[in-house]
Amino acid sequence: MPKRVISPIRMLGHRVIESLWRMGVAARFFALILMRSGACVRRPHLVIREVFSTGVLSLIIIIVSGMFVGMVLGLQGYDTLQTYGSEEALGVLVALSLVRELGPVVAALLFASRAGSAITAEIGLMRATEQIEAMQMMAVDPIARVVAPRFWGGLISMPLLAAMFSAMGIFGGYLVGVVLIGVDDGSFWSQMQAAVDFGDDILQGVIKSVVFGVAVTTIALFEGFDAPPTAEGVSRATTRTVVTSSLAILALDFILTAVMFRGL
Amino acid sequence: MSEPLVEIRDLSFGYGSRPILKGINLTAGRGQVIAIMGSSGCGKTTLLRLIGGALRPTQGSIRVDGLSVPDLKQRALFDLRKRMGMLFQFGALFTDMTVFDNVAFQLREHTDLPEAIIRDLVLMKLHAVGLRGAADLLPSELSGGMARRVALARAIALDPMLIMYDEPFAGLDPISLGVTGNMIRRLTDALGMTSLVVTHDVQESLKIVDYVYFVSNGVIEAEGTPAEIRASGLPFVHQFVHGEEEGPVPFHYPAVDLGVDLGVDLGVARGEKHA
């Protein structure tokens, strides 16, 4: 076969093998984090610190985005619902959209770009400036001391941020629907209360956000730890974190929705 | 004579097929300051990483305090590292912690000492390097020399038996240079530890060390006491000690002839022959 035919096939094969190899290394890294999480239980302040830097410091972007998404849902939802004369169901539409789907997904996407990129850059720079190696030379395991607390910190923050996003979104929908447009206050809340189920909707939304939290923090930590110790290496790793996390969130969302809501 | 603290025999190491160190023999006695000198990129830092167990040799043995470093499992290696300190070239201070927390790091990680005692120990270590007053500063607020001294205080936090310095004099002003050199000697004597100093600063090192090893092209080219090194007639040592361009250590990285690269006959260009 001519070289120009073989060459792209070989390149494709190389890319696939390299991707699979990296996924294997990442899976091993994930297992290592779980195995070395003992220090996080013995010293919870390490995790609390990370909940602050990944969770609390992401609150502003989550609150503002949640409000805007909720307000847009209020406007769009009202427009569609009034065609069928069911404006009172606006609360249900806003709440279900947020709790089931938009809350976990959009909060996770924002979390990946705000906290995930920060985690990758921080760990990558720690490697570039020999801080990780210094820690190892001081007989301290960086996976247990640096990586695991960030993992658990991210994991705890993610569902809380998703819940905050949904709550702010519902408030935004209320502001537009009830305060601005004039949908009946009682119907807005009572229909929402009747339609939103704790087990079917809220719990499954929480499950989604926990899964997204695991995915985003693992990707961010792995990319940071694996980044070449140069300015360019850290920059590429940070970009990869945002891109890979976003794709992982959307793909996982489809799988989880199919399994949980459709029972596939 | 008691057993040496560090003993390296026939050590070889390479990255892939590229050899870095070839048959190194080195001994560091207890309480000594040993300098490992050589030009940049000759494998000095790699040697420190091998002693610290961060890399595994392809051949030969490394013994520290009687233990074979390459054969140690992670837990035993970490136990050994608790008795070793390493000063990285640029300090490698934890940038999200204050100077105090940097020095307290190992004490908090490896001991159950109450915070009041940790505070006293940290302040004593910082006092030893003259930076007790900088305890609350962040690493970003320190000069290069100060960062190096904080890293030194951190490296001696657990009173190690061995401390390894990677280029401790690089980029320091003359005052900091002298202060750092004296501090290495003083701390080694006061704490009864052994110091391995990787450096290419000949004049400063010869003032403070007990013994010198010269590494070039992955082998020990010369060794001796500072007096022997100063008096050495070996071309390599002479070139290095006197900082000469001409000698066995080439200035240029191996390359094809300049004339070939530029596409001209350099003999003609220099007027040595006619076109």
Mean pLDDT of chain B: 86
What quaternary form is this? heterodimer
Q: In the residues of chain A, how many domains can be counted?
A: 1
Helical percentage of chain A: over 70%
Order of strands in the sheet with the most strands of chain B? 6-7-8-3-9-10
Decide which structural class fits the backbone of chain A: mainly alpha
Name of the CATH superfamily of the largest domain in chain B = P-loop containing nucleotide triphosphate hydrolases
Largest interface: A-B, 16 and 21 residues
Give the SSE order of chain B as H and E letters.
Answer: EEEHEEHEHHHEHEHEEHHHH
- Gross morphology of chain A is globular
Largest sheet of chain B: 6 strands, mixed
Helix and strand layout, with pairings?
The complex is a heterodimer of chains A (about 260) and B (about 280).
Chain A: H1 3-35, H2 38-42, H3 44-55, H4 59-83, H5 90-128, H6 131-137, H7 142-181, H8 185-195, H9 198-226, H10 231-260
Chain B: E1 6-15, E2 18-28, E3 33-37, H1 44-51, E4 59-64, E5 67-68, H2 74-81, E6 84-87, H3 99-110, H4 115-128, H5 144-155, E7 162-166, H6 174-191, E8 194-199, H7 202-208, E9 211-216, E10 219-224, H8 226-231, H9 235-242, H10 258-262, H11 266-269
Folded structure, characterized:
The complex is a heterodimer of chains A (264) and B (275). By secondary structure, chain A is mainly alpha-helical. Chain A has one domain (36-260). Helix content of chain A is 88%, strand content 0%. Chain A is globular. Chain A starts with a helix and ends with a helix. The mean pLDDT of chain A is 92. Chain B has 2 domains: 6-83 and 162-269, Rossmann fold; 98-159, no CATH class. Helix content of chain B is 37%, strand content 22%. Chain B is built from 11 helices and 10 strands. Chain B has helices at residues 44-51, 74-81, 99-110, 115-128, 144-155, 174-191, 202-208, 226-231, 235-242, 258-262, 266-269, and strands at 6-15, 18-28, 33-37, 59-64, 67-68, 84-87, 162-166, 194-199, 211-216, 219-224. The model of chain B has no long low-confidence stretch (mean pLDDT 86). Classes of the chains: A mainly alpha (264), B alpha/beta (275). Chain A binds chain B through residues 122, 125-126, 129-131, 133-141, 145, and chain B through 52, 54, 77-79, 81-82, 84, 86, 88-90, 92-96, 105-106, 109-110.
